[in-house]
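Methods — Computational structure assignment.
A single polypeptide chain was analysed. Its primary sequence is given first, followed by the predicted tertiary structure written as structure tokens.
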Amino acid sequence: MKNNFLKLISRQFCLNLFRIKMRNLLFSLLVLLASAPAFAQKFNSLETNLHNLYRVSDAKSRSITPENRTGDKGKGAMTPAKEGTAAHAARDLGDGWKTNPYINIQPGQTEVLAEIEGPGAIKHIWMTPTGQRRFSIIRIYWDDEKEPSVEAPVGDFFANGWGRFAQVSSAPVTVNPGSAYNCYWVMPFRRKCKITMTNIDTRAMRLYYQVDYELTEVPEDAAYFHAQFRRVNPLPYKEVYTILDGIKGKGHYVGTYMCWGVNNNGWWGEGEVKFYLDGDKKYPTICGTGTEDYFCGSYNFEVKDDDKPHGYREFTTPYAGMPQVIRPDGLYNANMRFGLYRWHIIDPVRFEKDLKVTVQALGWRSGGRYLPLQDDISSVAFWYQLEPHKKFPKLPSKDYLEVR
């Protein structure tokens, strides 16, 4: 009897010990799974940055240039020397020696720069457009859409809208000497991507370009990149300038580039930038305190050095800048012109249903009163949203686009 009792206690003790061990093992497993979800998934490379650059991925790196118009593996530098745009320069070296580094786009012609089957993502675009930048229109189409998700003069898209070089050293856009335009916006797509350039000038356009992309899986919550150009010259008296409106769907606003041509003497940047979100009508949800404040400057962008005349100071930083100030020369350059950008990378403006963005044009008049300005204002708005998107307003005519 005593032995049976001891056996029963021993058996119960072992059973309890087993249960405790199993419970601890299960708990440890759950902690391990919860603490390391990223390592349980393959890295698709879309979010590559300095802090995860060590991670390997199954993504396939590809690049489209005039030397490889399809981006296909092992298809670069195949243009015969006698047929390339640089045939004359390569005539002594033969095939494979920089035979086709650029394309020529004739007046009125639309050239397909890249056409890619997905899924994947554009990671970088570099190009060196020539001629009047407002007369070269870049468009990007996602999947099978008929209307572009990106449509802008190429200079404005790359934060150089006045037709003159201005160095830009920002996170998503850089413009480097002598005319190198770069953008690093990540642009995911699922089925297809098409990039075109239209030359509406009367002269041919020579274009060197490179589109770097990756073929990889795209997550379900990835939105599509959009960019839209607008111009009003002059802005009607007491009207606000609309940077973007008519946006329906879910997404987030990520940047503004503006060209601001002043038609009055005095300070021009008292106007507020306003974001109308998800049903806002008369009053916005987000309202700034001044134009220079929105572009992360202050007090008229004016630097007051004791040993120098007071004046505007150009600046270019990762997320905001005023890289261009065109000053009157007293002859043909009559008015001040400014190029400004603000990228909402750390602080995207998220919307669920709809979005509208405006800016007031305000200066000063006598008696310390605001003066509604009638300036030359143009802009490119940058945002991501889930498709479909509403058709863009028609791009202005060539004469209306022209910068003089």
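Note: The chain has two domains: 61-101, 102-401.
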